[in-house]
Amino acid sequence: MKLDKIPQTFYFALWLLPLTSLLCSLLNRLLPPQPLANRSSEIVTPVRAPALRETTPPAGLTPPHPLRFPATTEPTSKKVYYVAPSGDDTNPGSLERPWRTIQKAADSLVAGEVVLIRQGVYSERVRPKNSGKAGEEIVYMAYPGERAVIDGHELPLPDDLAGLFEIDHQEYLRVSGLHVINSRPYADNAAILVVYSEHITIENNTTRNTASSGIGVWHSQEIVIVGNTVEQAGVRGGQECITVAASSGFEVRENRVVDCQKEGIDAKDGSSHGVIAHNVVAHPRAVGIYVDAWDKPTGDLIISRNLVFDSVESSGLAIASEMGGLLTNIRVENNLAYHNHTYGIEVSACCSVNHPMEGIVIINNTLYQNGIGWGGGILQDNAQAQNVIIRNNLVSQNLTFQIAVAANVPEGSVRVDHNLIDGYRGYEDEVYGDDYVEGEAGFLNPSAFDFHLSDASLAIDRGSPLDAPLTDLDGDTRPIGNGYDIGADEWQRAIYLPMVSAKLETQWPPSSQGRLSLVSANILVMARNLWEAMANGLYRCMLSHTAGSTSSIPICKKPRLVASQTGTFFPAGRGLTTPKSTSRPFSV
Questions:
Q1: What is the value of pTM for the model shown?
Q2: In this structure, what are the phi and psi dihedrals at residue 3, rounded to the nearest 5 degrees?
Q3: Phi first, then psi: what are they for 30, rounded to 5°?
Q4: 220: helix, strand or coil
Q5: Cβ atoms of 33 and 515 closer than 8 Å
Q6: Fewest Cβ atoms nearer than 10 Å: which of 114, 329, 434, 461?
Q7: Could you give the CA distance from residue 197 to residue 168 in angstroms, rounded to a whole number?
């Protein structure tokens, strides 16, 4: 929204919203309430992740089947069962007479059925017996508003690739809203594990203190991992915190990975046709986001719009072929990486004689103050990588170099152009590239971790349109103005107001002790629509931290009315500590 339109609209909203709230309060007192739900019914409408729609892939990547992203759909009614710590597995599984174990549900549910898991701690391993089918998923879900915990502290798993919640050779399942903690004791023991399965959704779960992955996927297809929080995974040195291996057609998006003891998110070992997008990886011990072919052909992957910071020992993002598998068609775009131990982005020559790559695009990323002791912004260190493009990146105040290309990389195998160089160091392998811009980055407030461009930034309109992404890290359209901007942010003529609180009502209309008059509800819906229209024009979620805050994470500029999708980033180095003991379980 243009600046000259802000005052009139803003003051109108300030006047209207309190009046709406007062009117709703009066109407609730005067009009008879209406029940929002019939509690006795066995048919309910569970919360569902959106269905998927096809989209056009970004420039430079043309996978053989369309990429999938969420689209709003209407939920469907399903037969629902219940599990509660006070239940009994001989019960019928109703709300009044629930089952005792989740495994009872896993043995009983068939296509199109749902189990709602009541608050409590379940010391059990869950392995679903049956598959759903297209349009009739089987859903395992925490009861809305309650905390259902699967705790493996007193339940040792096999010395193998195993999970506390393990989906093996199944189809069309959804796992939603569970807390899965303390998987142990062996290095490959995960919290949630998916193997040899298809059409599986893992959403809005929390995992913590896991020997191996918080979420691991192997040899599977059409997998969605969305909105999860993975904390202190890999404490026994097993797999990565979120692992996707030998799998295709996957999405890893809008997840939060914190204090990981291995790589944060890894797509590897023959994986293909996947998207890793809109994730936050904070304080990983190793690489934040890793793509590794290992010894199998791997490729057609997009790494987009992620935030990675404070890697303890390694890079923010890295691309590798550790054991000689061909890595092809990898696109790294619109990512923000800062304060990582070595590099912001690395094209690696690890870890064997052969490490072939073809078609690597590193474009419109922002890399800031990477390198502790030694390190830099972007490193192309792989002499066997062909057709590497490093374009439109904003590299600022990284320690040893901004962009470096190893001396043994053949001339003509890499193209470096249209990057903004802020702080050229003169390192022996450091390069400017073609059509570069040199000078200060012009961030709004880097000391407060706000990496939006100011109106004085040299990055504005100086990027190349060739292969440039059509949106920026925040999802704003590119280009705006006379050309594409350099870096992850596309500057806009917008005012940066404080972010909308994450403590807005999570549902519309908000309930009033389970009841709300229909007239009042309609007014609230109209108010909500007005507020969203206002907010979409006036507010942009800042790509910044709020000092001292460890609340939820914004993954957009526009505020959302769902608390789990809004909030503030973690402050660097605060509240993100390595666990002192990997043997002590977390309490619930």
A1: 0.76
A2: -65, -35
A3: -90, -30
A4: coil
A5: yes
A6: 434
A7: 6
